[in-house]
Amino acid sequence: MIWLDTLVQGILLGGLYALFAAGLSLVFGIMRLVNLAHGDMIVFAAFAILLITQTLGLHPFLAALIAAPVMFALGWALQRFVLNRVLGKDILPPLLVTFGLSVALQNGLLQGFSADSQRLAAGPLESASVDLGLVTVGWMPLLTFATAIAVIVGLNQIFYRTALGRAFRATSDDPVTASLMGIAPKGVFALATGLAMVVVTIAALYLGMRSNFDPSIGPARLIYAFEAVIIGGLGSLWGTLAGGVIIGVAQTFGAAINPEWQILAGHLAFLVVLLLRPRGLFPRAVD
Amino acid sequence: MRVTTSTRTGRIAGLSALALVALALALPAFASRAVIQDLFTILTLLTLAQLWNLLAGYGGLVSVGQQAFVGLGAYAMFAGVILMGLDPILAIPLGGLAALALSIPTAFFAFRLQGAYFAIGTWVVAEVTRLLIAQWKTLGGGTGTSLPREATSDILGVEPIRVLFGLREAAARDVLAYWLALALAVLTIAAIYALLRNRLGLALAAVRDNTEAAKSVGIDTTRIKWAVFLIAAFVTGLTGALIYVQTARISPDAAFSVTNWTAYVIFIVVIGGIGRLEGPILGVIVFYALQQALADYGAWYLLTLGLIAVVVMLFAPRGLWGLLSDRTGLHLFPVRRRLERIDLEGGK
Amino acid sequence: MILETRALTAAYGQFRALFGVDITLAAGETVAIIGANGAGKSTLLRSITGVLRNAPDMVLHRGEPIGALPPEIVMRRGIAMVPEGRKLFPSLSVEENLLIGGQVRRAPGPWSLAAIYDLFPILQAKRLAPGTSLSGGQQQMVAIGRALMSNPEVLLCDEISLGLAPVVIRDIYAALPAIKSTGTAVIVVEQDIARALSVADRVYCMMEGRVTLTAPAQGVTRAEIHQAYFGGAA
Questions:
Q1: Distance from C-alpha of A193 to C-alpha of C55, rounded to nearest angstrom
Q2: Would residue B218 count as lying in a domain?
Q3: CDD domains, from UniProt (chain A) (predicted)?
Q4: Could you say which residues from 186 to 225 on chain A have a Cβ atom under 8 Å away from some Cβ of chain B?
Q5: For testing the chain A interface, which of C76, C100, C105, C149 should be mutated: the one with the most A CBs within 10 Å?
């Protein structure tokens, strides 16, 4: 039963990684921008939620509701005033700008909040668990996974059922022709990054409630997110969930063998997939 | 007509560079130990920056995983000393070779990733290498280890330096490391310059500007990217080994630090001017000045550095050297090919 | 004049493609612009739509300068484009391709999904198929329908017969009278001279970035066109 338990824990952990990855995937899908500061933005959002819980005495869930629109505005502004200026054929400028942002964010947080580990207090939910017969799982991991599914369903609804989603897809296909339809590509990009930051806030909420965080952990979250995206195949949100699950399962099994191998096992799973299926498990037909 | 890259400023710069190198060689005779140590840091960072510039600025390969080669190079040197009983200086080439060996699977994996994702791919490989090295208990595992005293006590070449300058042994070791760093930096710059001036330079420019077009005129872009990546890894490994000969103490977190070996290096290149040989040289000077000015402000330093890099990319994407060279037309390392009229005998 | 260019010059970097082009389009009028490959016809349309930016007063819409406006703003003023090569969005279905044409601007007017499906009945049957899975002619119908969905004042058609079989071209051109009858002003850029003249009120002929002939479509002679098209003696 221990293996079944490990498997279930790994799958549920995958939900968290899918949440990390969804925002990265969204931004890349629409504007081919790889945001190297993505992990640090998750950590930034976690600190934002922390600050709100501390100053207003709110539960993290409510604090995240307040943080989300703020993060949306920050993402929108970042894209509008910074990233839109460096998007183009050359991949170098956006990479270097987001790398600079990553380091600046990390050290800004370090300056503001010190290197101490923090946690979002979720109350009784933290330790509550439910007996599913064969295995017992915590409510928190279960909730994380359910949220990941909800986020993916929600994003897919936006993408395929709304006018905004139509504009996202059209701009992703061909920004010049989209502009001939009256759509301002740079405005669409700003909305997309804003939306990605809302997803980042949700990811931050669960990151902070499930484990300790400090200003330095952003890059590792970026790497998990990236691995989930690549394993899933660029452009497929469900694939991203599958990618997250694969890394999660590899990590929990690695940890079950030797706690020091947890992270390593996740990376190795990624390399194996990259070796066998360079385009990921669910590649998009058109690219 | 003939094609030339030679310019008058270029020749003057060449002569000045020779004079500068001669001065740098003689420096230990009158500079303090602290200056020598600072210069060692600057020279090793300059070497790493030139290599990263070769990758990203000329090859279009934005690697965020160069710490893999620094770290592995350093650990290979440690392995040579601790496990094989080599002299640390003689163990430095092991660092280059180990990094070269790692660069082959790294390139194999990372080149499978499209464009920008290449960057994170190299980062993953660096993380994997760090985690694996941390499992190597003989070399201290996760906490690291030091070079044994008997290995550092009579390093090859230290004794003559000690006698020559009348220094204590530790200071003489710093002088040796400094000279090696100087040699490595000068050779690296010279080699990259030579590389850019011959056919590879043209091919690289073509690959960076337009991979498809380069392919269509028969340039094997994959091979060139492999070549650049492997060369950069080898020399990065040598540099890593040299850095840790001087430090004499190693741990996985320090040796594979993305901040120290990649972030700093990226900022140096970006601020100085990407895709120019002069860029990293100017960049490392600015970087060092900033470090001195902001040394007491902890995280503010990196925060500032990150923001400066962002601002430079936004408003002066070719860096400070780009600004300078646009204003003055100055090229210290002319690599651009120009047509020049030459008079042939017979007045043709 | 609903649309006008004045001494329009345009360049791609160092390469100048237009040298002082003056054209006018009156409300409800259909104008054909013909010329050989590289005459500057497509550059002219790119300049009007804002894909290529110019000095503000080089392009006037209802007398207001629009030459420096970006394409999305030009489009919102009621100038819709059927781009060369159709340029349907591969991620969108046929119906979504049509909808996106009227998503940002939808002036009151005759065009709607239903009206487009009346004009091109085949599209209704394929409404859920990916836009790019259709035949070239059907894709061209989608591209025209997409531009009409905003109920534009001005419709710009860039080489809508390019690469299509004659019988398909006939079907597409058969739709133009219906479009004209709603009062939309139309510019058709064409290499197929006969087709262009059959629908146009006036014709401009371009050569090497200049207008070499302006004439009513009825009454212009083959010799005049030949002269304007190729330069030199006919």
A1: 32
A2: yes
A3: TM_PBP1_LivH_like
A4: 219-220, 222-223
A5: C100
pTM attached to this predicted model:
0.90
Per the domain annotation, does A246 fall within a domain? no
Q: For residue A108, which residues of chain B lie inside 8 Å, CB to CB?
A: 299, 303
Closest residue in chain B to residue A272, using alpha carbons only:
B109
Residues A233-272: tens digit of each pLDDT: 877 899 999 999 999 999 999 999 998 899 999 999 999 9
pLDDT at position B216 is 66
Asked if pLDDT for residue B27 goes beyond 90, the answer is no
Which positions in chain A touch C49 (Cβ < 8 Å)? Answer: 180
* Mutation for testing the C interface, residue in A158, A180, A237 having most C CBs under 10 Å: A180
Residue C66, both tokens: 């629009």
Q: In which domain, by residue range, is B242 found?
A: 23-273
The Cα of B80 is separated from the nearest Cα of chain A by a number of Å equal to 26
CATH of the domain at B73: 1.10.3470
Contact predicate A227/A278, CB 8 Å: no
- A106 contacts B302? CB cut-off 8 A: yes
CATH (domain of C66): 3.40.50.300
Strand, coil or helix: C162: coil
Q: Which of residues 163-182 of B touch A (CB under 8 A)?
A: none
The domain tally of chain C equals 1
* Chains contacting chain A through 3 or more C-beta pairs under 8 A: B, C
The pLDDT tens digits of the residues spanning C49-87 come to 999 999 999 999 999 999 999 999 999 999 999 999 999
Where do we find the tokens 């058609």? C157
What confidence score (pLDDT) does residue C234 get?
Answer: 43
Contacts with A262 (C-beta within 8 Å, 6 or more apart), sequence order: A251, A252, A254, A255
Range of the domain at A88: 2-213
Could you tell me if B324 lies within 8 Å of chain A, comparing CB atoms? no
Q: What is the pLDDT of residue B2?
A: 62
ipTM tops 0.90 = yes
A262 within domain boundaries: no
CB–CB contact A97 B313 (8 Å): yes
- The residues, ordered by sequence, that sit 6+ positions from C124 with a Cβ below 8 Å of its Cβ are C117
Which segments of chain B does DSSP mark as H helices, in order?
Answer: 8-26, 33-52, 67-82, 88-110, 117-133, 149-153, 158-165, 169-197, 199-209, 211-216, 221-247, 252-255, 258, 264-272, 278-294, 299-315, 319-328
**pLDDT tens digits along B247-297:** 989 999 999 999 889 999 999 999 999 988 899 999 999 999 998 888 788
Q: Kindly state whether A283 is in contact with chain B, defined as any CB-CB distance less than 8 angstroms.
A: no
Tell me the residue range of the domain where C122 lies.
Answer: 3-230
> How many structural domains compose chain B?
1
Question: Which residues in chain A show pLDDT less than 50?
Answer: 286-287
Of A166, A174, A182, the CB nearest to C72: A182
- The answer to whether position B200 is within a domain reads yes
Contacts of B60 in chain A (CB under 8 A): 91-92
Residue B320 lies in a domain: no
**Is position B214 within any domain?**
yes
Question: Into how many domains does chain A fold?
Answer: 1
Q: Which residues on chain C are in Cβ contact (under 8 Å) with A183? A: 72, 100, 103-104
Task: Note whether C89 contacts A173, CB cutoff 8 Å.
Answer: yes
Q: How far apart are CA A132 and CA B348, in angstroms?
A: 94
Can you read off the two tokens belonging to residue A192? 């997309």
